[in-house]
């Protein structure tokens, strides 16, 4: 191979030096064409797609997750939000159950009329958490985890079906207009509206284990378009996000022209993320032991399967649609070393493609605090049990 540096650089004129640099550059480029560059190097010099959404990183906060406020967990404090910000995170997602902020008798089945009975004091409490998060420079994404007529979980009677009943869609739009109006003058840098958590069709809206299928694309488009218009009626610049179809797993091509970002999930495969979870498995005690990578049941689990899973989402970023991973993580029954090995690959794939993430959750079974794992040496953190290894994995992304 030609020694490009054999020429006596000290005896050259300035013009000769410029010509030599151009020659070296041209020869290096030509060498790539001769197959001398590795695939890793070629990938490294290719420009990464620019995600229209910021690469937010943070947590889901479950203060308003329960349909019954009396059954809510202990709330997020300002100290918690300060820790989140001090650790370098910039995002929190609030998955809300709409009955949580209604003035109704929570011991009885709700009626369609009661869906409109907003409890202003309950809304003020949500607003207080939003304002405190903003005080600590955290973007807040409001999400209807339970929307009128749909929730990925059962446990609360729904009087109709969001995907099939106009009355449910009208109520859905009413709720989103209410929230959009409340934050009418708040920048999209600080607030976003995540329409409905993990959509799917279900034969019986009140039976968690009834047959489930994909929401037809035209139906999803109708619902998302109506809700986004009810939000942007208050502020045309409001930022709207739609969770992926099939419980957050699949891109929604039918809405890519609607200026709505999309949210994926970091739970694939479920045998890792929801190992022994009773709400996700019909026979949770008789599952194959998770490994990463490795053979689990009839499948070999590997990074390659993750790359295939996220490929459509990365392509969506390339098409100019904003993408964020609104939920990710692992229940506390998966062995910790398996969880961290798998999650390292998940986060690396997301982060290397400019896609941010929010761990489910901050404090609790999936969280960095008080997760109740039996195989973790916790660090004491102001009276809480901190999973330092998980925290540092999240921080380095």
What does this structure look like?
The chain is of the alpha/beta class. It contains eleven helices and 15 strands. The chain has helices spanning 14-33, 39-45, 78-86, 120-135, 166-182, 217-232, 245-248, 270-273, 303-318, 336-352, 388-395, and strands at residues 57-60, 91-97, 139-147, 150-151, 191-194, 201-202, 212-213, 239-243, 261-266, 294-296, 299-301, 323-328, 356-359, 379-381, 384-386. The strands form four sheets. Strands 1-2-3-5-8-9-12-13 form an eight-stranded parallel β-barrel, surrounded by five helices. A hairpin with a 2-residue loop joins strand 10 (294-296) and strand 11. Helix 5 runs parallel beside helix 6 and helix 9 runs parallel beside helix 10. The longest helix has 20 residues, at 14-33.
Brief summary of the model shown:
The protein is of the alpha/beta class. The protein contains 11 helices and 15 strands.
List the helices and strands and how they pair.
Blueprint (H helix, E strand, L loop, with lengths): L13 H20 L5 H7 L11 E4 L17 H9 L4 E7 L22 H16 L3 E9 L2 E2 L14 H17 L8 E4 L6 E2 L9 E2 L3 H16 L6 E5 L1 H4 L12 E6 L3 H4 L20 E3 L2 E3 L1 H16 L4 E6 L7 H17 L3 E4 L19 E3 L2 E3 L1 H8 L2
Parallel strand pairs: 1-2, 1-13, 2-3, 3-5, 5-8, 8-9, 9-12, 12-13
Antiparallel strand pairs: 3-4, 6-7, 10-11, 14-15
Helix pairs in contact: 5-6, 9-10
Q: Report how far apart the termini are.
A: 40 Å
Radius of gyration: 24 Å
Biggest sheet architecture? 8 strands, parallel, barrel
Sheet with the most strands: spatial strand order? 1-2-3-5-8-9-12-13
Catalogue the unreliable spans.
1-36
Q: Which structural category do the helix and sheet elements fall into?
A: alpha/beta
Shape: globular
Instruction: Give the mean pLDDT.
Output: 90
- Give the tally of β-strands: 15
């Amino acid at each position: 191979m030609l020694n490009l540096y054999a020429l006596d650089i000290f005896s050259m004129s300035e013009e000769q030096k410029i010509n030599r640099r151009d020659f070296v550059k041209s020869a290096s480029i030509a060498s790539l064409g001769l197959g001398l560059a590795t695939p890793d190097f070629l990938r490294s010099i290719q420009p990464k797609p620019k995600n229209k959404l910021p690469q937010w990183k943070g947590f889901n906060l479950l203060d308003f997750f329960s349909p019954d406020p009396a059954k809510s967990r202990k709330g997020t404090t300002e100290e918690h939000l300060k820790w989140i910000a001090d650790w370098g995170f910039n995002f929190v997602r609030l998955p809300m159950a709409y009955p949580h902020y209604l003035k109704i008798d929570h011991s009885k089945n709700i009626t369609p009329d009661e869906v409109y009975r907003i409890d202003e004091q309950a809304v003020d409490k949500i607003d207080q958490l939003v304002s405190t998060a903003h005080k600590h420079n955290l973007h807040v994404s409001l999400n209807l985890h339970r929307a009128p007529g749909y929730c990925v979980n059962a446990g609360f009677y729904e009087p109709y079906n969001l995907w099939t009943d106009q009355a449910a869609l009208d109520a859905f739009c009413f709720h989103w207009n209410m929230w959009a109006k409340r934050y009418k003058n708040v920048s999209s840098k600080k607030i976003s509206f995540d329409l409905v958590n993990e959509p799917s069709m279900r034969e019986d809206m009140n039976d968690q284990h009834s047959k489930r299928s994909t929401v037809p694309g035209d139906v999803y488009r109708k619902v998302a378009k109506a809700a986004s218009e009810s939000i942007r009626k208050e502020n045309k610049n409001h930022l709207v996000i739609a969770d992926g179809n099939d419980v957050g797993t699949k891109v929604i091509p039918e809405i890519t022209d609607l200026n709505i970002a999309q949210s994926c999930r970091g739970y694939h495969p479920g045998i890792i993320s929801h190992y022994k979870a009773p709400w996700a498995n019909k026979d949770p005690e008789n599952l194959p032991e998770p490994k990463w990578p490795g053979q689990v049941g009839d499948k070999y689990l590997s990074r390659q399967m993750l790359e295939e899973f996220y490929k459509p989402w990365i392509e969506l970023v390339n098409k100019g649609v904003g993408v964020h991973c609104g939920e990710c993580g692992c229940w506390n029954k998966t062995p910790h070393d398996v969880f961290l090995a798998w999650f390292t690959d998940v986060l690396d794939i997301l982060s290397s493609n400019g896609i941010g993430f929010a761990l489910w959750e901050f404090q609790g079974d999936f969280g960095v605090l008080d997760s109740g794992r039996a195989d973790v040496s916790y660090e004491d953190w102001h009276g809480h049990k901190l999973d330092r290894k998980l925290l540092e994995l999240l921080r380095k992304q």
